[in-house]
Amino acid sequence: MKKYYLIILAILVSSTYISAQTTSITSYELFLDTDGNHINAHGAGVLYHDGVYYLYGEYKKRWASALGVSCYSSGDLYNWQFKGLALTNIDRPGHDIQPGAVIERPKVIYNAKTGKFVMWFHLELRGKGYEAARTAVAVSDSPEGPFEYIRSLRPNPAIWPMNYSQQLYNAYREKSNGSDKGFFNPGTVGDFLARDLDSGQMARDMTLFVDDDGKAYHIHASEENQTLHICELTDDYLDFSGRYTRVLPGQSNEAPAICKFKGMYYMISSGCTGWAPNQARSAVAPTIWGPWTYTGNPCQGTNPHNNLGPDKTYGGQSTYLLPVQGKDNAFIAMFDVWRPHNQQDSRYLWLPARIKDGKLIVRWQSSWNLSFFDQQ
Ligand code: GAL
């Protein structure tokens, strides 16, 4: 008799498990992990390693400060299992990542040469608002962590970017002090770049990108969020090599994400309006160093939950462009819908993205699956 009970129990458990599996991606509503909890991974990025996708993001309660970086894993991009915190606050007064520190937009990449998983994230020091503008690095032997915190820094002290110089800056300055005074935006001219030259450049919203040749890049909003910097990392991915370039100077881009298709580089970004949504932007370049050409707003369609369309990025802000394995010209454009007064309830928009006529296109879909990419 007992045996039958056990069999029935086993059938019930397995059918619940099967029915809990999902085969679609649904945006804006609660995004449940395999335990039934709303995924807590904001400003996220994804690493694909050995057949598994790993999702990393800000693990938050109500406030902007994060308890650490969460990790979820999935084999199919639909069902995500919570793996715990890959990086946690260090409870030591004065420590960079003490409780209350702002840990944002974590991204993890794998270094094939060293066999290490390397995490970078935007760091703001406890009690200092957003003035520190630093980036921080941690390392692990396993994709799920624990990641060991290494240090934070402001990139590229005393180094001019590859596409700008002291001479060019002086020439601009001279001009703007003349008859056309006031014409030049300080962000375009590079006033903040020059101001921070010795101490290192500001680094706020960031992403990482690993190219086909194994070189990795740290891309971030710098110069008071006026200008993006694309910076090469060292071969072990643990430091900046010193080679970097300014992108779209003075045009106030943040929340950058990059993907590559057929040898071209595509970027999505947002404007700078804090937690409030604005209009997404896109750009394309033939090399990671540019030249980057602005290609307009990549978004199409409207989010029926809030009636917001492309002019407000459906209520979201970009965080990552995820290449779908095994499909051609198939990316998931990942966005956060911020809920600044209850951060853990912030929502996600994961939308299909493709390159069409040399431009990134993101299409609103309330609920969809990867067969979307099998259609034209
Ligand atoms: C946004 C940024 C977020 C967070 C927020 C704070 O502009 O993209 O990651 O830093 O500002 O206000």
What does this structure look like?
- It is a single chain.
- 10% of the residues lie in helices and 40% in strands.
- By secondary structure, the protein is mainly β.
- A five-stranded mixed sheet has the order 18-22-21-20-19, with no helix packed on it. Strands 2-3-4-5 form a four-stranded antiparallel sheet, with no helix packed on it. Strands 6-7-8-9 form a four-stranded antiparallel sheet, with no helix packed on it.
- A hairpin with a 5-residue loop joins strand 10 and strand 11.
- It starts with a helix and ends in an 8-residue tail after the last strand.
- About 2% of the residues have low confidence.
- Bound molecules: beta-D-galactopyranose.
- Beta-D-galactopyranose binds next to strand 6 and strand 14.
